[in-house]
Amino acid sequence: METIPFANLANTFQAATIEAGANGRVFFLKIPESAVGFLKLIGNNWFSNTYFEFIIDGEVVKKVEHQIGNINDPTSFDPPYVVRDRLEFKAYNNSTKSIRFEVVCDGVAVHNPR
Predict the structure, then answer these.
(1) Torsion of CA 4, 9, 14, 19, to 10 degrees
(2) Burial class (CB in 10 A: 0-12, 13-18, 19+), 78
(3) pLDDT of 48-94, one tens digit each?
(4) How far apart are CA 114 and CA 99, in angstroms?
(5) For 12, which DSSP code?
(6) Phi-psi bin for 21: left (phi > 0), alpha (psi -120 to 50), beta?
(7) 91 and 18 Cβ atoms separated by less than 8 Å
(8) Number of domains in the chain
(9) Which residues contact 1 (CB under 8 A, 6 or more apart)?
(10) What residues make up the domain containing 36?
(11) Shortest CA distance to 37 belongs to which of 110, 103, 104?
(12) Confidence (pTM)
């Protein structure tokens, strides 16, 4: 089995500026075919009148209305979240100004050759 750090698949820190009243993707990571991802660390910023959708494999895992972990000191999850296809964070900005949203996600994908 081959272990692939998320950093080899995408930047583990991603950010996007979302206009007031809009929404958009802030973080995206695709897991290679025949691999399974294990999301171990999450950090994000957060602002009033905003929220994230935390999405694994196209399904909303939770609506995030707080900071999960600091960008520079992400929260560790044990057991990790299992990701079979893709990992996403989508931000919703219900405030009156544009905001730069930031997310860090780290872990590994395990490739099982057949």
Answers:
(1) -140
(2) exposed
(3) 999 999 999 999 999 999 999 999 999 999 999 999 999 999 999 99
(4) 45
(5) S
(6) left
(7) yes
(8) 1
(9) 110, 111, 112, 113
(10) 2-111
(11) 110
(12) 0.94
